[in-house]
Amino acid sequence: MFVQTDGRDHLDYRRLLNHEFSALRTTASAARITAHAEAHVQSMVSAGATADLVAQYALPLVSQTLCEVLGLPWTPGSARRMLQVFQGRDLGNADLNSTTTPVDHLVRDLARDALAAPHRYPGLVGRIAAEGIDGRALTEDELAGLAKQLLMPGHVSPTHMLGLSVLVLLEEQPARYAKLAADPGSATDVVEELLHHITVKQHGLIRRAVRDTAVGGVLIRAGQWVPCHLDGADTGPAGFAPGRTPVTHLAFGDGPHQCLGQHLSRVVLVRGLSVLARRLPALRLAVAPHQLHRRVAHTVAGVTSLPVTW
Predict the structure, then answer these.
(1) Residues 115-173: tens digit of each pLDDT
(2) What are the beta bridge partners of residue 213?
(3) Fewer CB within 10 A of the terminal residue: the chain, N end or C end?
(4) Which residue in 246, 159, 255 sits closest to 201, CA to CA?
(5) Nearest one of 260, 2, 300 to 144, comparing CA atoms
(6) CA-to-CA distance for 118 and 112, rounded, in angstroms?
(7) CB 203 within 8 A of CB 227
(8) 261: CB partners within 8 A, 6+ apart
(9) Is the separation of the CB atoms in 298 and 202 below 8 Å?
């Protein structure tokens, strides 16, 4: 798990992955992400006048975009299966005392196949399987670990962030949603404010101290692991005010371990919200807010489903 490494080891793995997740590369894919969003909205509309925004829009948009970057085959069915597998551990549906989980089986099978036939994966997974790192071939464990860290948070966090963003706009900020419908260009400011306002990564983020450090009068020894609560740390000016300067948040962490996929997540959120508002300006919740099943005591906050109508 390269997120648990520091220094040169961490940088070597990060450099291996940076290309596909760079700001320039992600910006170049914005038009394709917009096209995916349009297609998923159309699929919802064609199916009827109500939909589960998480299952029928947020998840397929996030999953399809990520799988394209990684070079993995994608279908709506595979997206649902992957999210179920990834959330199984988070929701306590897997045996946490087991040395293997459904996630481990999924990524190990992927790593084994990619190392044997990299050409089957025309994206990041195939590239790193073929190239290795510093002239050395990746082991099955290494590729499986990298795939796990890209696929699991890459599906769960952006999916719930997009779902919660829509919920916040419809429930708390309907005027902002209406403005998005009339002015899609305002989506960038709205997304940054939402990232500060929500902070879906609640807890479970761990970092290792590289030197003895005192925090709040408590001595943390070099080498000790420290859990970080981003939601508690992500405080700032009250109210919801897109466009404020500066807008600061810790939604993607900070420092050398800052989220690798932050540029891709931002584009998915911006294009996903702007397309949705433009295509469905009358979007509203199909159930009372108190009827939603909210993921509160989980690593990643969210709603398991978001019934909407238009």
Answers:
(1) 999 999 999 999 999 999 888 999 999 999 999 889 988 998 999 999 999 999 999 99
(2) 220
(3) N
(4) 159
(5) 2
(6) 10
(7) yes
(8) 21, 66, 150, 153, 154, 158
(9) yes
- pTM, to two decimals: 0.89
Residues 6 or more apart in contact with residue 183 via CB below 8 angstroms: none
- Report phi then psi at 28, rounded to 5: -65, -20
> Could you give the angle at the alpha carbon of 191 between the alpha carbons of 185 and 196, nearest 5°?
150
79 pLDDT band, cuts 50/70/90, is: confident
DSSP string, 17-56: HHGGGSHHHHHHTHHHHHHHHHHHHHHHHHH-SEEEHIII
Structure letter (DSSP) for residue 290: G
Separation between Cα atoms, residue 161 and residue 291, nearest integer Å: 19
Q: Which residues, 6+ apart, have CB-to-CB distance to 98 below 8 Å?
A: none
Q: Answer yes or no: are the C-beta atoms of 113 and 129 closer than 8 Å.
A: no
pLDDT digits (tens, 9 = 90+) for 33-45: 999 999 999 999 9
Is residue 87 within 8 A of residue 156, CB to CB? The reply is yes
Residue partners of 268: CB distance under 8 A and separation at least 6: 33, 61, 62, 65, 158, 162
Give the per-residue SS3 of 56-112: HHHHHHHHHHHHHHHCCCCCHHHHHHHHHHHHHHHCCCCCCCCCCCHHHHHHHHHHH
Task: Taking the CA atoms of 76, 74, 195 and 179 in sequence, report the sign of the dihedral they define.
Answer: negative
> Could you give the 3-state DSSP secondary structure of residue 209?
coil
- The tokens of 268 are what? 């998915």
